[in-house]
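2024-03-11 09:14:02 INFO worker-7 job=invfold-0412 stage=load source=structure_tokens
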């Protein structure tokens, strides 16, 4: 009959034989690691050994968090060591919150801005947008003599700021720095654009009291029988996309616009009474 092999007892049985109570937990620090050893009973009423290994890290936190960690513990954790106790505390992931009205962040941004200005030293911190000089734009001595396009006349550039100015035809302008818009470069182009805008306003009508379901196609079908149209604008809500209740129509001819006003003003459309008038009042 074969001899039964000797069965070696486990460490849990040895601990049980030594004494009925569980041994105290131990902590060992080794190469930046914290090893915690604990003993407890499992579901089968057997003693088990639990070993947890923690990595020690140093983090930079705000003053309020650092002060809160130094508070004295109370209750059942009054005699615990610094840090969370696994027996009474569940350690989860850190949740970082950023407040909109953070005084510390506001002060930090101001300090960074001052540091940048100090780092510039004697360099030109201020630069004029008109003449690119070392001064504020509002204090530029050439702002009244600037031509169209942001250029400063050559005869204005010089140390004599208060000297008489010279017009485009070579005559003195009586010491005035101001150049009328009509004498500046590109004056004819601006005049032409203004005339075109005025012609558009003369043939533009405004339609109000439109329903929310009105679209550009519906509006075009409504005014197209009166004559050719140059532009059409229907006011809509940016988010919802429905009609705000008014629109502008630019006809090619003023007679067609007047005909549309006469026919559509007070006209019933989509269960509403329309109000049609000139976009801007014009004398007869």
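2024-03-11 09:14:09 INFO worker-7 stage=emit residues=284
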């Amino acid at each position: 009959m074969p001899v039964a092999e000797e069965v070696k007892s486990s460490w849990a049985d040895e601990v049980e034989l030594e004494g009925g109570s569980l041994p105290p937990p131990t902590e060992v620090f080794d190469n930046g690691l914290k090893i915690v050893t604990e003993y407890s009973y499992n579901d089968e009423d057997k003693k088990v050994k639990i070993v947890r290994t923690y990595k020690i890290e140093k983090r930079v936190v705000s003053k309020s968090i650092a002060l809160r960690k130094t508070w004295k513990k109370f209750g059942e954790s009054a005699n615990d060591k610094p840090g969370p106790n696994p027996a009474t505390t569940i350690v989860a992931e850190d949740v970082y919150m950023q407040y909109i009205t953070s005084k510390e962040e506001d002060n930090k941004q101001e300090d960074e801005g001052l540091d940048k200005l100090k780092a510039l030293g004697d360099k030109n911190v201020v630069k004029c947008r008109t003449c690119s000089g070392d001064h504020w734009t509002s204090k530029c001595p050439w702002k009244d003599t600037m031509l169209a396009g942001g250029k400063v006349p050559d005869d204005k550039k010089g140390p004599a700021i208060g000297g008489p100015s010279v017009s485009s035809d070579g005559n003195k302008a009586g010491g005035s720095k101001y150049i009328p818009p009509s004498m500046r470069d590109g004056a004819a182009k601006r005049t032409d654009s203004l005339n075109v805008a005025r012609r558009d306003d003369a043939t533009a009508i405004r339609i109000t009291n439109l329903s929310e379901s009105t679209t550009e196609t519906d509006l075009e079908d409504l005014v197209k029988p009166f004559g050719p149209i140059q532009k059409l604008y229907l006011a809509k809500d940016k988010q919802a996309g429905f009609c705000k209740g008014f629109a502008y129509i630019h006809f090619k001819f003023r007679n067609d616009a007047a005909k549309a006003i006469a026919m559509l003003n007070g006209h019933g459309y989509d269960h509403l009474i329309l109000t049609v008038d000139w976009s801007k009042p014009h004398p007869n």
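2024-03-11 09:14:09 INFO worker-7 stage=report msg="Residues 62 and 241 are 47 Å apart (CA to CA)."
2024-03-11 09:14:10 INFO worker-7 job finished
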